[in-house]
Amino acid sequence: MAKYVLMNKDTEVMVVEQDDKTYKFIAILELINIAYAPFVIKNAIASFPEKTLDKINQWFRYRIIPNSRENKYELLKNIDVESSEELANKHFALSLSDQYWLKPIHSSITWKNINYFTNDYDSHEFFDANYGNNAYITLTKKITTALSSLETPNNTTGGQLKKAWIKINGENYLYKASAHFIILIRSMK
After folding, report:
1. What is the pLDDT of residue 158?
2. pTM of the full predicted structure?
3. Closest CA to 97 of 54, 43, 159, 139
4. Closest CA to 157 of 24, 83, 63
């Protein structure tokens, strides 16, 4: 079992325990700053406290790549990960959709050091696993290898369409594609 502090940037929200095989949250060990919790969790604590653990698991499921994602299983195989839940846990369950993350219980790491809004990340392996070998190089015209390939916001990018976050000249872009269209969306800061 793994213990984490659910964080909102650098504010501790609660201490939770997660099964390290299924990645399901199995216990809430301490409530700290509920006002900073994701809405679905804060609402459960206020209205249906007995459902809070279910809502934490629901919140986490919405962070992961869904089963309906085009080529999900091929993607996971290509990056040598068994499940979307495992992938999300590879780098603190960080996302470019919000400021929540899972901090290992005794870690001293901070939001400033790891968030994807202001820090670099490498999408090369993830991008190629999604769109084909050398797709990343073709898109960005450069290779970045200084970071682990699983330290990326792509670990927590939900939705059915194939997609990948990339950083070009310090700006975050969400690349989405299907058989019918390609979209490159710049994120808002």
Report:
1. 72
2. 0.77
3. 159
4. 63
In single-letter form, the type of residue at position 163 comes to K
Strands lying side by side in the sheet with 171-177: 162-168, 171-177, 182-186
Q: Tell me the sheet residues that pair with 163.
A: 176
Give the C-alpha separation, 91 to 120, whole Å: 13
Tokens describing residue 67: 């089963």
Q: Residue 111: which of 88, 129, 95, 89 has the closest Cα?
A: 95
* pLDDT (0 to 100) of residue 174: 78
Distance from chain centroid for Cα 8: 14
- Collapse the DSSP code of 103 into the 3-class scheme (helix H, G, I; strand E, B; otherwise coil) and give the result: strand
Looking at residue 182, its pLDDT comes to 56
Report DSSP state, residue 120: -
Please check the confidence at residue 30 and state whether its pLDDT lies above 50.
Answer: yes
Strands of 100-104's sheet in order across:
25-31, 11-18, 2-8, 100-104
CB 87 within 8 A of CB 65: yes
Say which residue, 98 or 150, is predicted with more confidence: 98
